[in-house]
Amino acid sequence: MAVVSCTKAPEVAQKTLAVQSEVAESGNSVQEPTARDRWQALIRENRFASMDQKLKAVNAFFNGFDFVEDRYLWGSDDYWATLSETLGKNAGDCEDFTIAKYFTLRELNISHEDMRLTYVISVKTKEPHMVLTLRVDSSRELIVLDSQNNALLPVSRRHDLVPVFSFNTEGYWLARYDEGWSGERIGSAGKLSLWHNVLQRMGDGQSVISDG
Fold this sequence. Notes:
The chain is of the alpha+beta class. The chain is built from 7 helices and 9 strands, in the order αααβααβαβββββββα.
């Protein structure tokens, strides 16, 4: 199953890539920290932080990346990047940012059982989108980490999104709004070809940034 979403005006994407190219080709000897350097600092600084601080830090970190459509960044209509690839480009789209947040939080010792990448439809635009949902504890609602909204809100306050299905490295579930974005398991993670491909490139999800 393919998920095509997170569109952006071509001229915006082209401008972003042009700026990146100019920086790469410049003779400036001052070495700014790379996205990978900043990611490693994020991990160090938040390893022992509270759950809320980890979520805020990771969400803000990736929401600060450039948003570029797959066709301009990867030359493909729909490509799901690994965390390493997203860090290498310092750019991506909603799927890339959601994947990056998932594996970064895994690196910060948050269990895959508490997180799911969730495919949704925007009520306003009718366009598909992807977010990360996370259960902080059993007594609280799922929290949404969204590349288009910096606020960490519970699913009951995201009336602008309609959940469709969710997945992680262990499985694939339906997601129903009236069930708190939950639903029955309908298969393994391998049912989603793009996700399965990401896991294969990352060594079945065990290696975080060793690829690329």
